[in-house]
Amino acid sequence: MKRLFYILILLPFFTFSQAQKKYPTLLWKITGKDLKKPSYLYGTMHVSSRLAYHLSEQFFEALKSVDVVGLETNPGDWLINMEKTGELDQANQIVASNNYRKDFYRSTFMASFPDKRVLQGILSYDPDIINGLLYRHNRSKENFEENTYIDLFIYQSASKLNKQLISLEDFAASEIKARLSALPDNELNEETDSENSSNFYFNSQKIEDAYRDGNLDVLDSLSKKTSSKNTQKYLINDRNVFFVNTIDSVLRTKSLFSGVGAAHLPGEDGVIELLRKKGYTVEPVFPKNTKKSDATRDELDIMVKPVTFQKQFLGDSSMAMNLPGKLTQIVNFETIKYYIYADMTNGSFYTIAKLKHFGPLFNVSISQMMQKVDSLLFENIPGKIILKKEITSNNGLKGFEVVNKTRRGDEQHYQIFFNDLEMIMIKLGGKQGYATGSESKQFFNSIQFFPKGQNTVDFTPKTKGFTVKVPANYNYTKNSTASSKGLIEDLYAYNNIQKQFYGIKHAVYNDFEYLEEDTFELNLFSKNILKNYDFSQDISRELVKEQSLPCIKFKAKNKTGSNFYGKLFIKGIHYYLAYFICEKESSFNNDFFTSFKLTDFEFINPIKTITDNDYHFKVKDEVTVNASSKFNEAYAKEYEAAKVKKEKNTGDYDYHSSNKSYYSPSSNEYVNITYEKYNDYDYRDIHEIEQSINTSIKNTTGLLITNRSTSNKDGIFSYKCTLKDTATSRVMDVKIYFKNGIMQEIIAPYDSVIGLKGWTKDFMESFIPQDTVIGKNIFENKFKNLLNDLCSNDTVVRQRANSSLLNSLSMNKVYIDEFIKFIGSKNLSLVSEDSRAQLFVNGGTMSNNKIIEPYKLLYKQYTDSFYMQLCMLKGLAYLKTPASFAAFNSLILSETPLVGEVSIVSDVFAVLHDSLELCKNFFPGMMVLTKYDEYKDAVYTLMSELVNKKIITSAAYLAQKDNILADANLALKRYNPASNKSSGEYSEYDYLDKSIKELAESIQQSLDGFTNNNLFKGSAYLKGLETFNRSPLVNYAIILSPFYKTDEKTKQFFTKLSKLKTQSIAMPVAINLLKSNIVINDTLTNFYSKNKFTRAYFYTELEKEKLTEKFDKKYLTQMSLIESVLTAQTQLSNIYSYDKDKGKKDSLLFIKELDAKNKYQKGKIYVYRIIKSKADDERWSVAFVPESKSGISSNVQVINSGYYIDKTKTETENYNEILDYFNLTYRKRAVTAAGY
Q1: pLDDT (tens digit, 9 = 90+) per residue, 572-619?
Q2: Cα angle for residues 203, 207, 211 (degrees, 5° grid)
Q3: Homologous superfamily of 607-769 in CATH?
Q4: Fewer CB within a 10 Å sphere, N or C end of the chain?
Q5: Is the pLDDT at 913 greater than 80, yes or no?
Q6: Which of 195-204, 292-301, 1106-1115 has the least mean pLDDT?
Q7: CA separation for the pair 945, 933 (Å, rounded)
Q8: Tens-digit pLDDT profile for residues 1124-1157
Q9: Using 50, 70 and 90 to split pLDDT, how confident is the model at 1101?
Q10: What is the DSSP string of 126-182?
Q11: Alpha-carbon 753 to chain mean position
Q12: Closest CA to 738 of 790, 683, 697
């Protein structure tokens, strides 16, 4: 209820002065037009602050004198109206969204006894909506507030005075206006006012002063200057028209007191002026506050209006009571239901909370449950408890009766009852002693519980889906909100004579990218279910087919000897768990299991053809028809009507994509729709689109494509297929449509045995792209149009073409002839520089040597633009043919573009590195470029790669050796680790203190360059390291190492280089020398072998070069390599922690080796205890090593470098936890981060 909580004006301070007030007061008298007696208009403030309670004698005289009292909306109808507009579902939707963050396999079928925090919350919780409806108290200012806000005080007073009460506007229409007012101005208007959006916060003193003085002129000025246009229009002006029309219609027959927010009264579009325009005389009534007005206010405040009680039943018919009004459900969680009725006239509220506790599942009796709650009453009942006693309900339920008094002096009255499965808390709250008065007695004395018999009944949900026989003492819950994943239905029943518990749980998982193996899910679910219910003895499982569906039958015992029997079925996206718990041994051949049958769903809503105007299609859908859906439909129409229709949105030409889902409320089956609108210049070859889609599907899902078909008729290209995978009964139906410039992809998962049925089948088969022209035909070559528009004299057209080329388009090979023709024409000069540059670069992606000769000609013409020359060179590099690389080499040597920026040159040369063989003939000729500073690093980096890969030999650059050596010595002389950053860079560890910073940088340097090393594949922090981050000094070392033995000056360079302590340079240099069969100091190899931070990396680099004999054998064990990897990873992880001792090095103690496997891997897990210098929570560091034929494997994968063990579990249980999560690796639906 946005307008109910809209606090008059949200405005900042500014100076305002006016010689004469036009609107000087809050109370106004309405006369004229032959009215028999005056009516009144009053400006309210929607708060309980005393500021709003400066009520005059005239105020009360006016209120008493009229026939009718009208407020913006009638508070007595608020709860019902909020239910109709769907606002009460919002809390449930928030909880439903949390399902996405839960572990599907662990939490979906979970049952748990409520812990202390849950019980405390139930006892102490009053929904925020109660304060919003009845009081609007601010805890920080409660000593300066009245019992309620002024609008409700007017309502209560009028009701107690037996006045007719009306709404001045329709609640739903008002809510629509409020929602429109909250939209950004630029969403509904062409023009925006940045000043409005910036002036949001206000000086509360100015607002209070203006209201206190009744100075509506100030409020009006503030409102107009600082409210957004949408707020002023929809929240103020449009609603003013509603108010005035209602006032006018009432005044024809009755006198009226109207109370609306003060911001609605002043201004040309305000209520006062609108009434005057209708012919009424509207005059200010200046206030006079006296003791009489205060006495009248107090008299009305304490007055209690008698209410009429009527019997009503709770939603599940388990109980009934007499109430003054309708109970409304505001919470419908998996284990909690909450109902409320607010008596707006007397300021009281009635609530009923039902909490599932599943006591029999966890061997908790009713008396034990009562003891737990009793122990929490003192701390969790607000204020002082003045009565507490045990009571018994009409049918023998035990419970407590509690009465308490809050700090405000208000009494609250509780009755809390307990049955085998639930706790039911009934509460009445009100002002002063209302909760123990006559109304309270009528209410609590009327409460009745209806016992259910011990007979067996057939149960079928309203939406069907399954049928089963259960004891009559059952409870059924269905998730009332849309949820694509998680528990949907929960049925449980209890026979308290035989101590037997029965349950059916129904969950869904709508997945549009992944299909999991049936046996994996069945086994994992059954394992987690037994673990959750604490049945760990005599476990047996059997995979079977029942009702033609994958099923697992499983049973077990617990420590008390009780028996668990369960069946779990997979039916497409649906998972059904049927379970039975009993004290005596039983079997799967009882009435419960044999009666359980899965059936088709039955729609509870009509199936209608609907039109989606956002994604442009028509389809048959299950349409919910209720007050909430009607409201949403009305809002959508209002929103569309409110939009300013522009001739052409500036972004309509460009590419955009979005995604949405449709679902069936009856079956919770979902269909996912992806919508893409292509750039107006884009093009796809219709003959290649099928292969393109196949490739895309395989890359994104990895699933098998079957039943593939395509068609092209009536302007629509369609692609249809079925996606499958091995060992799963689930499949996906995929349909893709191309029409003009849009693509629509719809995906629906379903069961392959049963096939597409029900809502999903209707939706998929009825989907039709709308007959609307959106965008340009994607299968029409529009490249010529793009080129023409790049030269257009129309600024808007040219801007669109430029933006499209730079941001959205790739080059198609069919463009080649048109491209060649254009770049050879005079029109090229009309294209902006950025677009020309992009054309030159993109030309190489068309994979055609035809561009080479035109590029050569243009290269010579652009001698005055080095940047354009570099773009042409980059285009040639992208072409990746011998001829294009030869042209690259020839052009860059004949006319070298000197741009003065290293990064630009490096960017061009980076394209060459994935085609090194084609660069073989670049040297020694390209060495001439090293005289230019911006080329030196790029050339030497490329050259070192060619030498390292043995593509060129030292003979190729023997003549340039001295020049290379001179450059190397100069680089060494200039090298300074401390200043090896540009002025704009800073260390990511600069915020640390000195000792920790040195440690961090030492580790980081030891790890530099590891991205190409299999050893560290699993280390997340290494993934961001760049491939080409090697120091220039290392490049020089690689290039010069062939001359180490034959040239003294080269040897001297290496001697000086060896004195550097930076390991990111020293170690690669040492390895390269060993690779060149050069003997180096044993001390250095021993250091790298011994040092825990370098050991593993050093060994794997030697292993790649087949030089492992150089590694110190004392440290060559599997455990030493693992310890090296974990030490580096653990210490680096500590640096990012908040541990005060994070600068201190941890040591590792090996504690366990475990056999481990997952979907794709088999090997061993190694567990180390992290030993810190001070006592703290124990942590483990864990690594995995896959099976290897050789004795020692360098493929060490870090599983977790800081696993906090669960001290409530044994060491073995913690080991099993690690193994369980490792087993879930590569299982996309599983959450593998718990405990990590």
Answers
A1: 999 999 999 999 999 999 999 999 999 999 999 999 999 998 899 999
A2: 170
A3: Mog1/PsbP, alpha/beta/alpha sandwich (3.40.1000.10)
A4: C
A5: yes
A6: 195-204
A7: 20
A8: 998 878 766 655 454 544 445 568 899 999 999 9
A9: confident
A10: --HHHIIIII---GGGGGGB-SS-HHHHHHHHHHHTT-EEEESS-HHHHHHHHHHHT
A11: 34
A12: 683
Which DSSP string do the residues of 201-219 spell out, in sequence order?
A: ---HHHHHHHHHTT-HHHH
Rounded CA gap, 502 and 888, in Å? 77
pTM of the model: 0.83
Determine the pLDDT at residue 725: 95
Q: Which two tokens stand for residue 1110?
A: 């150089």
pLDDT number for residue 153: 85
Structure tokens at 45: 């403030």
SS3 40: strand
Whole-number Å distance between alpha carbons of 445 and 516: 55
Q: What are the structural domain ranges in the chain?
A: 27-81+131-302, 310-449, 456-601, 607-769, 781-897, 1118-1223
Hey, which residues does 580 pair with through a beta bridge? 502, 565
Rounded Cα distance between 1121 and 653, Å, is 57
Tokens of 257: 């007191």
Distance in angstroms between the alpha carbons of the first and the last residue of the chain: 42
Strands 730-739 and 597-601: what pairing? Answer: unpaired
| DSSP H stretches of helix in 575-678 | 591-595, 627-642
For residue 512, give the amino acid letter.
F
Selection from 1060, 1058, 1064, 1115 nearest residue 1086 by Cα: 1115
What is the Cα 757 distance to its own chain's centre? Answer: 31
Which residues lie below 8 Å from residue 1051, measured CB to CB, with a gap of 6+? 1044, 1045
Domain 310-449 has CATH 3.40.1000.10: yes
Same fold, 310-449 and 607-769: yes
Closest CA to 1060 of 1039, 1082, 1097, 1031: 1031
CB-count burial class (<10 Å; 0-12, 13-18, 19+) for 301: middle
Summarize pLDDT for 632-651 with one digit per residue, the tens: 666 566 666 666 544 344 45
Yes or no: domain 456-601 corresponds to CATH 3.40.1000.10: yes
Measured from the Cβ of residue 630, the count of other Cβ atoms closer than 10 Å reads 14
Q: What's the pLDDT at 207?
A: 58
Please report which helix (H) or strand (E) contains residue 552, including its range. Answer: strand 549-557
| Dist. CA 1000–CA 783, nearest whole Å | 53
DSSP output for 1184-1226: EEE--SSSS----EEEEEEEEP-TTS-HHHHHHHHHHHHHTTT
Among the listed ranges 223-227, 372-376, 856-860, which one has the minimum average pLDDT value? Answer: 223-227
Q: Are strands 281-285 and 310-313 parallel, antiparallel or unpaired?
A: unpaired
